[in-house]
């Protein structure tokens, strides 16, 4: 089972953390994520926060639920960039909206981040 450590305070941060581990190759297809309850306790989050992140990860194709086997990292198909990008954009928008920012301000911050990442 995979472990998740570090300061994670929201479902969007958890989603981003999991995606980055999968993209880096640290977590591979078939690896099992912790249960919602276990991860919520480990990170000090509400179970609903973890469940929300897992639902978004599944909707974007990053993970899949395998019944009693838990939540597993899904095999990635090269053509699913759109679904991945949309899931990350939704998480970003929700978090920024939670800060009270307007859509224009969100785009401005994203543009600044892109310039700084170059």
Tell me the strand percentage band: 5-15%
Q: Write down the overall mean pLDDT.
A: 85
In angstroms, what separates the terminal alpha carbons?
35 Å
| Helix proportion range | 55-70%
Helix/strand class: mainly alpha
Reported CATH architecture: Orthogonal Bundle
* Helix count from the secondary structure assignment: 5
User: What count of domains describes the coordinates?
Assistant: 1
Strands side by side in the biggest sheet: 1-2
Largest sheet: 2 strands, antiparallel
Number of strands: 2
Overall outline: globular
Poorly predicted ranges = none
**Rg over C-alpha atoms, rounded to the nearest angstrom:** 15 Å
Helix-strand pattern, N to C?
Answer: HHHEEHH
CATH class: Mainly Alpha
> What is the name of the CATH superfamily?
Winged helix-like DNA-binding domain superfamily/Winged helix DNA-binding domain
CATH names the topology as Arc Repressor Mutant, subunit A
Keywords: DNA-binding, Transcription, Transcription regulation
Protein name: GntR family transcriptional regulator
Domain HTH gntR-type: 8-76
Pfam families: GntR
How would you sum up this structure, described in words?
This protein is mainly alpha-helical and 118 residues long. The protein has helices spanning 11-23, 36-43, 47-59, 81-98, 103-117; strands at residues 63-65, 71-73. The protein has one domain (11-117): Orthogonal Bundle (Arc Repressor Mutant, subunit A), CATH 1.10.10.10. Helix content is 57%, strand content 5%. A two-stranded antiparallel sheet has the order 1-2. Strand 1 and strand 2 form a beta hairpin. Helix 1 packs across helix 3 (47-59) and helix 1 packs antiparallel against helix 4. The chain is globular. 24% of the residues are buried.
